[in-house]
Design goal:
By secondary structure, the chain is an alpha+beta fold. The chain is built from 6 helices and 3 strands; from the N terminus they run ααββαβααα. The chain has 2 domains: 1-36, no CATH class; 40-134, GIY-YIG endonuclease (3-Layer(aba) Sandwich), CATH 3.40.1440. It has a 3-stranded antiparallel beta sheet with strand order 2-1-3, sandwiched between helices. The model is unreliable at 1-15 (pLDDT under 50).
């Protein structure tokens, strides 16, 4: 039986014989196990002093635990624990995740809190320019 995947997609850990002898469901599971789509997360933490921290990771649970445990003494959140995860957005494209993180890092704390709370009307208001030149 011919594989539904090109031979170069077959994980090297599997022999071609064992791979081709499996049923399509088993082959799909093996394919996914070795070629899992990576996810990236942009997240916002609320620190104990009311400040926010924005970051990016490929493992949100691990990274949040690192913040809570204070593993990095030079991290912004180290002296601001405990922290609370108030927002996370999943991406399957690291470039989009990095772009979004850089964008919201520039936002005010109020704007980040509005995003985290789903207050999109307030987010729009906070996005408007209040300079005299734009009045």
């Amino acid at each position: 039986m011919e594989s539904e995947y090109p031979l170069e997609w077959i994980p090297m850990a599997l022999s071609r014989e064992s791979y081709s002898s499996k049923c399509p469901v088993e082959r799909s599971r093996d394919f996914l196990k070795f070629n899992i789509m990576k996810f990236y997360y942009v997240y916002i933490l609320l620190c104990s002093d009311g400040l926010t921290y924005t970051g990016i990771t490929n493992d949100i649970e691990r990274r949040f635990q690192e913040h809570l445990m204070g593993l990095n003494k030079t991290c912004f959140t180290f002296k601001r624990r405990p922290v609370k995860l108030i927002f996370q957005q999943e991406f399957n494209d690291v470039i989009q995740a990095i772009y979004f993180e850089k964008k919201i890092k520039k936002w005010s704390g109020k704007k980040k809190l509005a995003l985290a709370n789903g207050q999109f009307d307030l987010l729009q208001i906070l996005s408007e320019c209040n300079n005299a030149t734009h009045a």
